[in-house]
């Protein structure tokens, strides 16, 4: 199965990301990503045997990272991967912490963190640049997700979700 860890937005954040996406004009063969599929990939595990699932769930369960606020504030066209994305230009410390710990635990090589939500795929022509009203996303949990490719759009199934620490608790 093909797995990855991700931040999944709540309905309100997904709705506001959709509003941002609507301002962008893409050509005919490009595909909008359905709002229910919006996410920020934290660590792409890739294809693994089903027996590996328990190990990954243990990693997710054991991480202790505080909540953080992500601000998606820029719409970008990434020509190489042919996607239009909403980018969080600033990386909050909690996100860096979560991302580093997850990638270390899985044993993935360090890459540059570019937190983004893919809004459209198969985009070959640069859309007219659009300013983005910042979408404030209070991340309170993260998930392990299965991706089933093959259809016109990947189908995602959230397998497990873990809370980030609420540091206001017990104060
Ligand atoms: P994306 O977030 O930039 O669209 C599930 O497939 C998610 O993992 C997608 O969101 C996708 O990126 C990301 N992904 C797919 N293949 C990847 C790869 N080889 N390396 C890193 N991330 C990948």
Describe the overall structure.
There is one protein chain. The chain is 21% helix and 35% strand. The protein is globular and about 45 Å long. It has one domain (2-163): Cyclic Phosphodiesterase, Chain: A. The chain is an alpha+beta fold and 171 residues long. The termini are far apart. The protein binds adenosine-2'-monophosphate. Adenosine-2'-monophosphate binds next to strand 3.
Please tag this protein with its features:
globular, four-stranded antiparallel β-sheet, Cyclic Phosphodiesterase, Chain: A, alpha+beta, single chain, 10 strands
How would you summarize the topology of this molecule?
Blueprint: E1 2-7, H1 11-22, E2 31-32, E3 40-47, H2 53-62, E4 68-72, E5 74-78, E6 83-87, H3 93-106, E7 116-121, E8 135-139, E9 141-148, E10 155-163
Antiparallel strand pairs: 1-3, 1-9, 2-7, 4-8, 5-6, 6-7, 9-10
Please provide a brief summary of the model.
By secondary structure, the chain is α+β, with helices and mostly antiparallel strands. It is 21% helix and 35% strand.
CA distance, first residue to last residue: 42 Å
CATH class: Alpha Beta
Listing every helix as H and every strand as E from the N terminus to the C terminus, the arrangement reads EHEEHEEEHEEEE
Shape: globular
- Tally of discrete structural domains: 1
Could you say what the CATH topology is called? Cyclic Phosphodiesterase, Chain: A
What is the CATH architecture annotation?
Answer: Alpha-Beta Complex
Structural class label: alpha+beta
Helical content band: 10-25%
Low-confidence stretches: none
> What are the bound molecules?
adenosine-2'-monophosphate
How many beta-strand segments?
10
On the 0-100 scale, what is the average pLDDT? 95
| Major β-sheet annotation | 4 strands, antiparallel
């Amino acid at each position: 199965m093909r797995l990855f860890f991700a931040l999944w937005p709540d309905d309100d954040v997904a709705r506001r990301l959709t509003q941002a996406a609507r301002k962008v004009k893409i050509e005919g063969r490009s595909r909008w990503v359905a709002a229910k599929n919006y996410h920020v990939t934290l660590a792409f595990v890739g294809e693994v045997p089903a027996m590996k699932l328990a190990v990954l769930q243990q990693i997710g369960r054991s991480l202790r990272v505080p909540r953080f606020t992500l601000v998606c504030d820029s719409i970008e066209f990434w020509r190489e991967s042919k996607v239009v994305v909403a980018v969080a230009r600033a990386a909050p410390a909690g996100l860096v912490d979560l991302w580093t710990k997850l990638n270390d635990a899985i044993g993935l090589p360090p890459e540059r963190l570019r937190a983004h939500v893919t809004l459209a795929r198969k985009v070959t022509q640069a859309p007219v640049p659009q300013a983005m009203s910042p979408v404030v996303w209070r991340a309170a949990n993260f998930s392990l997700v299965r991706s089933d490719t093959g259809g016109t759009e990947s189908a995602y199934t959230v397998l497990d979700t873990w809370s980030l620490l609420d540091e206001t608790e017990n104060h």
